[in-house]
């Protein structure tokens, strides 16, 4: 069969003619070999023979060995043969030919796969750094640059036309990053969802496409072989600007930025989140395959994702691709903005598509729909209810990886920021387990527990004598306890089949021999008030280790085990104190080894992660419902991010315009709230009977709903560590005011779930003191319908703050207050548009960011039509940008771009050059010009005119806008000068050697004549920084400018003064520099003579 399969594959490959550069594909002289001719244009024809090693294992466990029989093959092809053949082990012949030809094409185009340039040995430090990341791409050659740039401009313009902010980072001639972004506020996500996802509306969601070998189009990427390395890597994150700094991308910044840049660039970092991290993995692992399936079969995004999932681990029949389920149309929330729903892929062929645009459209789709997909396996989740927070699917493996990899919001952060919420969630879960209703259990996590009932696999126990004073156990028999294990201690007269309450839990600290065991301070579990919580001294105890697999238990025993684990935890505020005991970073709970059992920590993390509602404790009276003394109040939001928009839509259709909504209470037993907070209010399960029909039961009278809280009792159990000691919970909900359409009016029975929005959750309990009535009302109160008024515990109407209505009216009220203040007209306009609600969002929302904050190089690239055009337009934009910067800051009389090259004399540009120095200087120059374009000129105090730089080894710098109180500034003004002109010449070993900096004009009073400014008599700068003794190769040029300017402004021991408006000859500056180095004992750079001789 292997030989038959191989012959068939060879026959198919010969007939398909899908390899345009291959000819004469045939069976070789031996049965396990093939031969073919590779041709590229008219300059290369190479004959190859390929041996199939272990051919009897074809097509699963064989390998290929290819060699050229043609003489004098190019070095790039020879190098290729040494490196890529192992990539195709176990691949079919078709895949091998496709991938091998793709590598040959790249080698032919690039001559040599990223061959090392002849860089001087002295520059090894930087060249090594540039090779650190992306070693896996070392075989990939570069493509034609002019073609790349033309395609890049076209693709970026397409993304910009679709409403996105675009830009790039790095060198367009080499390694660089494309950035595509849009503001979070324009995505149509509710305020509650943004809070739950921990995103800020004014921030950007940013997609970065990293190209280590130059730009590649979508057509190029989807048409390359499956075994070829992807020429792009994608990153997704959040940023306060439309593109981040390169230093915030650890894997790439050494490739695309120069040393020291971060000190002068904005601190805008790319920040990951529990939503963007899985999205980034999805893009890099599946995006290209999903796009290929869409282009090949015409699937929708949903259909292509389903097809990809179905194809995992099996080979689909060609007829399967025609199944209707793969062609289902995309489903969107009604109020999703148009640019988020846009899909350009079906409208064009691959060569017409923009990769940045298609990747961004897919990223936004997954971001706004993140609740619908598993965070781990990326598959669609069908839970049957709407959620506000993304989670994992029902697969135990996904839950395990979710916990192990730390996906979702950080546990310690939730405990520190919302301890009352954590206490409440744990209490609800405990009550549900005690009632035997906890059906969604944390299985698949590998938890070890003890069990209070006999099971077929109960771990054996041993007897020991406890010494509470020394916290030791003296075992009376053999055991297999290990350090770090958790154990349960029962009184010796309790049988294994009895309940584990009461008992003690502890961890093993030391095992000295087979009898003496040191343990941590025991944690009492199940002891009643006043009951002794440890056995008497000298009493025997049974040791039951946490060896039992949680997954092996029945559901009943699993719930009991969950209760035991939760009872071993410290209270929430003790955990908060432990977390905050380490600064500046929080201390992880997992490091509290003697107080928190690992299995208990899993359960705690699971309880918080599986909560799908947004709950916030708010003790601000401005946001509290008055008349609710003795209750603790929490703001509550539930449902999908677009549920608020659907609710507003129902309000618009409501018959009551004066009072569009009413408020009603919903009560339920304590153990039921664990489910309500995950699934929302619904009537899927019959709990208290339905005397008035199907629907959500609510009431205007608090006491009516409280009666439902007591049904089933509270004997379901309380979490012993709770600081709240909750006895009841009840929610206050906003409902569309159409009682005539309710199933019943007293109590309210509402079957339309979109008519209900939960706003508050109230709890009563013994853990917090009785609170006096808060008689001060919020400044803005919602006016209730007099006919349907919500009444509190004293049967009087409650006062509901306007902020309870969320963005619908709370935000508009906020906008009104701000508009009455000192807000500018522009800000007022933005707030008015946001107050329109989610329905007012459209594709235009994404284009509200003007080009004012777009960096200069991005404008140049978008506005240019050719590489040469970039240079011409850059000069016009430079002047405009400089004028803009001047307007941003305080006034200065310096005018950039007025210095003329013929107005001063310079020595000719240096004739030396090295590859390393040239490449480094190009990066430094570009970074320096970026900073100059971005910052107000009067603040940075220096200016580099790019039109005066004809050689990267020779820069002209003007220092200007000095403090008017300085004698230097006064002298410049008196002589009618606007700046100090300096020359900076770079040596061939830069950045290992420092630049030579000298004043060209004017001439300064020398130090011997009580002049200062660190200017020598010949005009050279007298600074250790500019010698081998003080120079650091990591210094950025703008930091050198800063220190030179500080030296000029120094008044110690004397201030800098101008002697006359003359120039310093170059030879005079060189001599003065040598004298200064000798006088101070500074080392002159080894290659300074090259500067001197130039």
From TrEMBL:
<feature type="compositionally biased region" description="Polar residues">
    <location>
        <begin position="882"/>
        <end position="895"/>
    </location>
</feature>
<keyword id="KW-0548">Nucleotidyltransferase</keyword>
<dbReference type="InterPro" id="IPR000608">
    <property type="entry name" value="UBC"/>
</dbReference>
<dbReference type="GO" id="GO:0003950">
    <property type="term" value="F:NAD+ poly-ADP-ribosyltransferase activity"/>
</dbReference>
<dbReference type="InterPro" id="IPR051838">
    <property type="entry name" value="ARTD_PARP"/>
</dbReference>
<feature type="domain" description="UBC core">
    <location>
        <begin position="920"/>
        <end position="1094"/>
    </location>
</feature>
<dbReference type="GO" id="GO:0016779">
    <property type="term" value="F:nucleotidyltransferase activity"/>
</dbReference>
<feature type="region of interest" description="Disordered">
    <location>
        <begin position="772"/>
        <end position="853"/>
    </location>
</feature>
<keyword id="KW-0808">Transferase</keyword>
<feature type="compositionally biased region" description="Basic and acidic residues">
    <location>
        <begin position="772"/>
        <end position="783"/>
    </location>
</feature>
<feature type="compositionally biased region" description="Low complexity">
    <location>
        <begin position="835"/>
        <end position="846"/>
    </location>
</feature>
<dbReference type="InterPro" id="IPR016135">
    <property type="entry name" value="UBQ-conjugating_enzyme/RWD"/>
</dbReference>
<keyword id="KW-0520">NAD</keyword>
<dbReference type="Pfam" id="PF00644">
    <property type="entry name" value="PARP"/>
</dbReference>
<keyword id="KW-0328">Glycosyltransferase</keyword>
<feature type="region of interest" description="Disordered">
    <location>
        <begin position="870"/>
        <end position="895"/>
    </location>
</feature>
<feature type="compositionally biased region" description="Basic and acidic residues">
    <location>
        <begin position="870"/>
        <end position="881"/>
    </location>
</feature>
<dbReference type="InterPro" id="IPR012317">
    <property type="entry name" value="Poly(ADP-ribose)pol_cat_dom"/>
</dbReference>
<protein>
    <submittedName>
        <fullName>Ubiquitin conjugating enzyme</fullName>
    </submittedName>
</protein>
């Amino acid at each position: 069969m292997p030989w038959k399969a191989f012959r068939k594959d060879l026959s198919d490959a010969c007939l398909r003619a899908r390899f345009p550069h291959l000819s004469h594909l045939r069976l070789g002289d031996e049965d396990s070999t093939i031969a073919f001719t590779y041709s590229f244009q008219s300059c290369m024809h190479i004959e190859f023979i390929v041996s199939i090693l272990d051919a009897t294992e074809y097509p699963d466990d064989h390998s290929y060995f290819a060699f050229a029989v043609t003489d004098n093959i190019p070095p790039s092809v020879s190098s290729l043969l040494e490196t890529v053949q192992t990539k195709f082990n176990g691949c079919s012949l078709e895949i091998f030919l496709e991938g091998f030809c793709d590598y040959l094409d790249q080698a032919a185009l690039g001559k040599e796969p990223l061959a090392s340039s002849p860089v001087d040995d002295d520059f090894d430090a930087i060249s090594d750094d540039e090779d650190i990341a992306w070693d896996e791409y070392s075989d990939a050659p570069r493509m034609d640059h002019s073609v790349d740039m033309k395609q890049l401009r076209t693709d970026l313009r397409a993304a910009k036309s679709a409403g996105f902010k675009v830009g790039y980072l790095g060198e367009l001639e080499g390694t660089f990053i494309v950035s595509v972004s849009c503001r979070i506020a324009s995505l149509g996500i509710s305020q509650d969802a943004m809070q739950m996802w921990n995103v800020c509306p004014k921030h950007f969601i940013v997609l970065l496409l990293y190209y280590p070998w130059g730009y590649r189009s979508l057509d190029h990427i989807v048409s390359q072989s499956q075994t070829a390395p992807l020429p792009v890597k994608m990153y997704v994150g959040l940023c306060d600007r439309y593109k981040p700094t390169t230093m915030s991308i650890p894997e790439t910044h050494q490739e695309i930025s120069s040393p020291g840049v971060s000190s002068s660039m904005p601190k805008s970092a790319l920040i990951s989140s529990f939503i963007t991290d899985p999205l980034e993995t999805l893009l890099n692992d599946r995006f290209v395959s999903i796009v290929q399936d869409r282009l090949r079969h015409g699937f929708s995004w949903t259909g292509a994702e389903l097809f990809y999932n179905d194809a995992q681990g099996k080979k689909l029949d060609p007829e399967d691709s025609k199944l209707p389920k793969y062609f289902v149309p995309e489903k969107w929330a009604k109020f999703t903005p148009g640019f988020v729903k846009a899909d350009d892929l079906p409208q064009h062929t691959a060569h017409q598509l923009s990769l940045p645009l298609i990747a961004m459209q897919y990223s936004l789709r997954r971001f706004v729909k993140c609740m619908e997909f598993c965070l781990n396996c990326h598959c669609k989740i069908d839970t049957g209810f709407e959620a506000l927070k993304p989670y994992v699917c029902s697969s135990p493996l996904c839950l395990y990886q979710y916990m192990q990899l730390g996906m979702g919001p950080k546990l310690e952060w939730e405990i520190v920021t919302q301890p009352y919420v954590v206490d409440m969630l744990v209490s609800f879960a405990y009550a549900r387990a005690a009632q035997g209703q906890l059906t969604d259990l944390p299985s698949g996590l590998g938890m070890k527990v003890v069990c209070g009932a006999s099971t077929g696999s109960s771990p054996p126990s041993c007897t020991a004598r406890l010494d509470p004073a020394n916290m030791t156990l003296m075992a009376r028999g053999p055991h297999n306890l290990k350090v770090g294990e958790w154990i349960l201690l029962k009184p010796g007269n309790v049988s294994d089949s009895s309940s584990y309450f009461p008992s003690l839990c502890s961890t093993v600290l030391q095992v000295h021999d087979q009898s003496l065991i040191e343990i941590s301070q025991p944690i009492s579990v199940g002891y009643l008030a006043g009951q002794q919580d440890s056995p008497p001294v000298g009493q025997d105890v049974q040791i039951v280790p946490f060896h039992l697999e949680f997954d092996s238990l029945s559901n009943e025993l699993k719930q009991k085990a969950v209760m035991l684990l939760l009872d071993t935890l410290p209270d929430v505020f003790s955990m908060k104190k432990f977390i905050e005991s380490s600064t500046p970073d929080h201390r992880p709970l997992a490091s509290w080894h003697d107080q928190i059992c690992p299995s208990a920590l899993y359960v705690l993390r699971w309880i918080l992660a599986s909560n799908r509602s947004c709950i916030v404790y708010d003790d601000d009276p401005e946001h509290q419902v008055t008349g609710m003394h003795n209750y603790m109040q929490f703001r509550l939001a539930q449902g999908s991010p677009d549920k608020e928009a659907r609710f507003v839509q129902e309000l618009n259709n409501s018959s009551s315009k004066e009072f569009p909504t009413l408020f009603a209470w919903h009560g339920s037993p304590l153990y039921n709230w664990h489910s309500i907070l995950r699934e929302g209010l619904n009537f899927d399960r019959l709990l208290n009977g339905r005397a008035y029909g199907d629907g959500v039961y609510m009431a205007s009278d608090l006491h009516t709903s409280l009666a439902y809280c007591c049904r089933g009792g509270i004997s379901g159990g309380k979490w012993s560590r709770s600081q709240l000691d909750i006895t009841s919970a009840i929610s206050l909900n906003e409902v569309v005011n159409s009682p005539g359409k309710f199933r019943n009016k007293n109590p309210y029975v509402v079957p339309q779930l979109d008519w209900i929005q939960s706003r508050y959750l109230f709890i009563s309990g013994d853990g917090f003191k009785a609170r006096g009535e808060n008689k001060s009302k919020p400044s803005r109160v919602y006016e209730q319908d007099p006919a349907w008024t919500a009444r509190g515990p004293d049967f009087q109407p409650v006062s509901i703050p306007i902020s309870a209505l969320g963005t619908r009216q709370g935000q508009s009220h906020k906008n009104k207050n701000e508009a009455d203040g000192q807000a500018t007209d522009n800000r007022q306009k933005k707030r008015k548009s946001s107050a329109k609600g989610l329905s007012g969002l459209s594709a235009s929302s994404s284009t509200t960011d003007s080009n004012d904050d777009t960096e200069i190089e991005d404008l140049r690239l978008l506005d240019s039509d050719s590489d040469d055009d970039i240079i011409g337009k850059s000069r016009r934009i430079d002047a405009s940008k400089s004028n803009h910067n001047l307007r941003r800051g305080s006034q200065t009389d310096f005018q950039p771009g007025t210095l003329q090259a013929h107005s001063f004399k310079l020595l000719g540009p240096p004739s030396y050059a090295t590859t390393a120095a040239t490449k480094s200087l190009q990066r430094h120059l570009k970074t320096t010009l970026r900073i100059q374009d971005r910052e107000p000129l009067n603040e940075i105090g220096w200016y580099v005119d790019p039109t005066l730089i004809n050689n990267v080894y020779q820069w002209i710098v003007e220092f200007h806008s000095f403090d008017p109180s300085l004698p230097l500034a006064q002298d410049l003004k008196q002589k009618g000068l606007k700046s100090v002109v300096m020359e900076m010449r770079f040596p061939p070993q830069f950045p290992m050697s420092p630049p030579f900096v000298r004043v060209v004009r004017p001439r300064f009073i020398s130090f011997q004549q009580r002049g200062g400014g660190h200017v020598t008599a010949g005009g050279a700068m007298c600074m250790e920084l500019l010698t081998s003794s003080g120079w650091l190769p990591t210094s950025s040029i703008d930091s050198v400018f800063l220190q030179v300017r500080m030296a000029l402004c120094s008044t110690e021991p004397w201030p800098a003064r101008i002697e006359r408006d003359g120039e310093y000859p170059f030879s005079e500056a060189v001599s003065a520099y040598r004298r200064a180095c000798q006088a101070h004992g500074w080392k002159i750079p080894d290659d300074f003579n090259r500067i001197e001789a130039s």
